[in-house]
Specification:
By secondary structure, this protein is α+β, with helices and mostly antiparallel strands. It contains two helices and three strands. It has helices spanning 19-30, 52-55, and strands spanning 3-9, 41-46, 61-67. A three-stranded mixed sheet has the order 2-1-3, covered by helices on one side. The longest helix has 12 residues, at 19-30. It is elongated and about 50 Å long.
């Protein structure tokens, strides 16, 4: 595991002050399996511009991209 990029999509709650804490918690969850640098996990937040259930504040969404690298033998 090289890095993790997570995007949380929600309309009403502001995640700005919590993004570092969330990234730290993700690193803590992954720590037993991979040693990740502090900058290897990023968390972003965005809105859905009032579209669909997320935009109406009825739901939240998340997109996560993980970069994996094959170990050389």
């Amino acid at each position: 595991l090289v890095n993790v990029a997570a995007t949380v999509i929600l309309e009403k709650i502001k995640l700005g002050p919590k993004k570092k804490e969330i990234a730290s918690q993700i690193r803590a969850i992954l720590r037993p399996y991979w040693a990740l640098d502090a900058d290897a996990v990023s968390v972003k937040a965005k809105t859905n511009e009032c579209c669909d259930a997320i935009g109406r504040g009825e739901a939240i969404g998340a997109q996560v991209i993980v970069l994996l690298q094959k170990l050389s033998s």
